[in-house]
Design brief:
alpha/beta; Aspartate Aminotransferase, domain 1; Aspartate Aminotransferase, domain 2; 2 domains; 14 strands; about 15% strand
């Protein structure tokens, strides 16, 4: 047992007795964090920093998988939640907050005439697909990106155990920025595709005209266009990626940053499609839970009132530029590069003989965790990330990058690792 993570490892052993993977979320589980060099439980967060159960402090660039946009324990959000707590959490009839938050989303999001709430991004994407199938009377779906845990999508991935083959056969992945890969699906399943759903951007920028061409092709074949804005929503712009790129979908799914980490998601879209919510079944006991709605209203109001997105963009752009320079300066270009958006950027690892990308990433995680940076190779920016946080991150990279280069050049990575290498399990992007 490592001394730095002693309590984390003890709690992991205890949790594994009652919780599969010891976590409710795959991406927060032991599959992503190499044993012996990683924290496993966080005790609290404030602004851009978190503290694990052993008392170790980190600058957090994961931000609960990009769910936290304002920062942990944002005073405006916390104040709104505390005030609502005095009145109650859930009731026998809807609370006016449901309408107020729906109106705020309709005000901010270009495609949104009407809104329905869920709790996870998976609720919202599944709801959008059910609407599209109901509206078109078709069954097949074209997908690009990660869209949650439910059968209709996950059946098309390698994590498809337990999903009936008949369900898996209805979902067809296509390749981002390659319009021909989508056209092939339409040719293979003429008049059978209900929806095209994609993350409008993740690792790679959309090629010029790609989203526009995709929308035209989708509508040409009588399908609905769905943007999965679970991450890009309220991050790429106040109105999401659809505002940022100027391409408006028929329906969109939102989650994560909608309520600064409180459990709330939403399906939004044009009225003619959303009216079908009265005929399909999309219903949750906790869909109108008021603490998350109060958090959402406070979050979106702050987005409108303060330069949240612009700050995340400018801070993230500085980070990308500085990290890219350091990759070049330290000579890591053959196995490390930067990609993504300024508000949601990625360090991309490649194999470097004799080592795999997973061995390199494991060494990277071991070294950055030890120096007080929490990342999985992404930089999920929040409004709370300061110039000091970025400087501290860069100082850590200035120490870690030479360690990685030395390990590759001298072929000593095995000796430098204090843990087992991460295993490639489920690549979502």
């Amino acid at each position: 047992m490592s001394e730095r993570y002693k309590k984390s490892e003890a709690l992991l052993a205890r949790a594994l007795k009652t919780i599969p993977l010891a976590s409710q979320t795959f991406s927060k589980s032991k599959t992503q964090y190499p044993y012996g060099v990683s924290p496993y439980f966080i005790a609290r967060g404030e602004g851009s920093h978190v503290w694990d159960v052993d008392g170790n402090e980190y600058i957090d660039f994961i931000n609960s998988l990009a769910a936290v946009t304002l920062g942990y324990n944002d005073p405006d959000v916390t104040s709104a939640v505390k005030a609502q707590l005095e009145d109650g959490v859930i009731f026998s009839l809807p609370h006016p907050l449901e309408m107020q938050v729906a109106e705020k989303i309709a005000d901010m999001v270009p495609c949104a005439d009407m809104v329905r709430f869920g709790k996870n991004g998976s609720d919202a994407t599944a709801g959008a697909i059910r609407l599209a199938r109901a509206y078109t009377g078709r069954d097949h779906v074209a997908v690009c990106g990660y869209h949650g845990w439910q059968d209709w999508y996950i059946g098309s991935t390698l994590r498809n155990r337990g999903v009936p083959q008949a369900i898996s056969d209805l979902t067809h992945p296509f390749t981002y920025n390659k319009i021909d890969s989508l056209d092939e699906i339409f040719r293979q399943y003429p008049d059978q595709v209900a929806a095209v759903i994609l993350e409008p951007m993740n690792v790679t920028e959309p090629a010029p005209g790609f989203l526009e061409e995709l929308k035209t092709l989708t509508h040409k074949h009588g399908a609905l266009l769905v943007f999965d804005e679970t991450i890009t929503g309220f991050r790429f712009a106040n109105g999401g990626a659809q505002e940022r790129f100027g391409v408006i979908p028929d329906l969109a799914a939102f989650g994560k940053g909608l309520a600064n980490g409180y459990p709330l998601s939403a399906v939004a879209g044009r009225g003619e499609f959303m009216q079908l919510m009265e005929e399909i079944f999309f219903s949750f006991t906790f869909g109108g839970e008021t603490l998350s709605l109060a958090a959402a209203l406070a979050t979106m109001s702050k987005l409108q009132r303060e330069p949240v997105v612009d700050t995340m963009k400018s801070q993230g752009a500085k980070l990308i530029q500085a990290v890219t320079k350091r990759i070049e300066r330290h000579g890591l270009g053959r196995f490390l590069s930067m990609s993504g958006d300024a508000t949601w950027s990625f360090l991309l690892f490649k194999d470097a003989e004799p080592y795999t990308q997973w061995q390199l990433k494991t060494l990277f995680l071991q070294e950055v965790f030890a120096r007080g940076v929490l990342t999985l190779g992404t930089h999920n920016m929040s409004y709370a990330h300061s110039d000091g946080d970025i400087s501290a991150l860069l100082a850590v990279y200035d120490e870690v990058f030479p360690v990685m280069k030395d390990a590759v050049d001298k072929e000593t990575l095995g000796q430098q690792l204090h843990c087992q290498t991460l295993e490639p399990l489920f690549k979502v992007r």
